[in-house]
């Protein structure tokens, strides 16, 4: 008790604690607590799950806290570790909170599916006041470690007015607790229920065990406990249990061959210790497939869709963005190239005009050199072959120059009119 006095600085009164040796006071009940799922009473501890996959176990408080400020001291251990879902602590306004769905209160989660290089596990905190319509999200508040020697972790969850405090320690020695999280939450519920839940993944599991749960308050009970509340909560818990059993029974009723062979196998194994041959394996596989299809939930579909589509879609989006950037760069390069070609075409046009003028002058000089005036009409009709060839050569040059000018003019007009469609090319 000295440990708890030093943390709070005040005397705390034990309330609704769970300490060994654990003895059932009713079916699946130990005092004011109820065991659910795969939870087992091992006398010295409460085993919430084994190393089997898909298991879950819970210890739920049937009596609400009748005080505002409290502390929960917890001893938790793990065995046969394989990556799994983890351990949850819930403080909620509903009895036996098993998930964060519709939670009003807060939750603390030790995520054993993600182990760090130093052997520690991340721990998360999430809260919802039931008023603000916001998505429930966990906040990473640190890491905790299960020592390899004892494999036991000591945790303290405290609520003082509107402040929540989470501490951890690898030993039970006073003064060695490390504060992981201190948070003020003005709209946090004042009265609620404690629930301890362990879950294994669909492929592997860890054996979680509760060794001690001690709850304390620093104030006397402010109201008299109504036994009808516990009776009502017991009905709620068992209604959930039977509802789950009915769902399982309904699914199993669709597997007659599997159930028949399983019962025969158990009988023969108990009597002779030998196995039997399953001749209708195909029918059993079909039944298992149909049952698994009927067992798919919206949450499972959401996880499948996220794993199968979200990553490829993000990759495709990155590629599209990269291609868009390359397209813009290519467009800019084409524009620069077209400006350069336009400039060169204009230069060719200018050079052609200058060349035309030069050729024109040369032609005029050549014509002047021909002494047409020295000959009369008779001589003109009887020109010598050499002079005829000179005149023909001059005409050929004139025709060639005109052809070149016409081609340059055609290219220039084709560019200016966008392929003779009208409009500017700029």
From TrEMBL:
- InterPro entries with a match to the protein in the record: ConA-like_dom_sf (IPR013320), Intracellular_Lectin-GPT (IPR051136)
Q: Which GO terms describe its molecular function?
A: D-mannose binding
Highest taxon, organism lineage:
Eukaryota
- In its UniProt record, which GO terms are filed under biological process? endoplasmic reticulum to Golgi vesicle-mediated transport
GO cellular-component terms in the record?
Answer: COPII-coated ER to Golgi transport vesicle; endoplasmic reticulum membrane; endoplasmic reticulum-Golgi intermediate compartment; Golgi membrane
- Record keywords, A-Z: Membrane, Transmembrane, Transmembrane helix
What stretches pass through the bilayer?
A: 394-412
- Is Phosphoprotein given among the entry's keywords? no
Supply the name of the protein: Uncharacterized protein
Source organism: Trichomonas vaginalis (strain ATCC PRA-98 / G3)
